[in-house]
Amino acid sequence: MDVKLEESWKTLLKDEFDKEYFKYLTTFVREQYKTKKIYPPASLIFNALNLCSFDNVKVVILGQDPYHGYNQANGLSFSVNDGIPIPPSLQNIYKEIKSDIGVTVPKSGNLQRWAKQGVLLLNATLTVQAGIANSHQGYGWEEFTDAIVKVVSEQKEHVVFILWGSYAQKKGAVIDESKHLILNSPHPSPFSADRGFFGSKPFSKTNEYLTKHKLNPINW
């Protein structure tokens, strides 16, 4: 997997690269890209880390795996490329932003602007086969992204972890609540958004916490 990784993450995660699971994962993913249609493009596998260095992380939003539709995935959880129709979960996220803080809903679903402000948009699984949701689960990505969550929890303070749905909440079990803010709610999917995602106000709560700890709020 010849993908450039931002230097701060490369240093912090270097021990992972020598572990057997990561060697297996690398072999598996490389072969998948050679033989099948895989998303996101190989150059964007680590986009979440490359756009948001460790030092800049203020917020972590955990997703499950990349979109598997044509040209949707860009390496950031919940985000799609410019010009791609906004998926239902992200439409609901935008609705909650408007309700919570009054921001006009953007026309683009590309969340790079969040990443560049310190929002780590991390999927648990970083690759997927076209048309087959969750197809790369269980090959090692989860262990790698667990290590990312753990290092943020252990080595930073006053990070907001936004955990939507049971999958993200289980993955967040390693987070130290004594020095970080954890915001749990149902997933923004149309199947669950009405069960408590709408009205949960994660965006105003995030900015209030960041401001309280003398960190710049996010321009959602």
Automatic annotation (TrEMBL):
Coiled coil: none annotated. Keywords: Cytoplasm, DNA damage, DNA repair, Hydrolase. It is found in: Cytoplasm. Residues 50-210 form the Uracil-DNA glycosylase-like domain. CDD domains: UDG-F1-like. It catalyses: Hydrolyzes single-stranded DNA or mismatched double-stranded DNA and polynucleotides, releasing free uracil. It is an enzyme of class 3 (hydrolase). GO terms for cellular component: cytoplasm. GO terms for biological process: base-excision repair, AP site formation via deaminated base removal. The keyword Electron transport does not apply. The active site is at residue 65. One of its GO terms (molecular function) is uracil DNA N-glycosylase activity. Its EC number is 3.2.2.27. The keyword Ribosomal protein does not apply. Excises uracil residues from the DNA which can arise as a result of misincorporation of dUMP residues by DNA polymerase or due to deamination of cytosine. Belongs to the uracil-DNA glycosylase (UDG) superfamily. UNG family. This is Uracil-DNA glycosylase. It comes from candidate division WS6 bacterium GW2011_GWF2_39_15. The gene is ung.
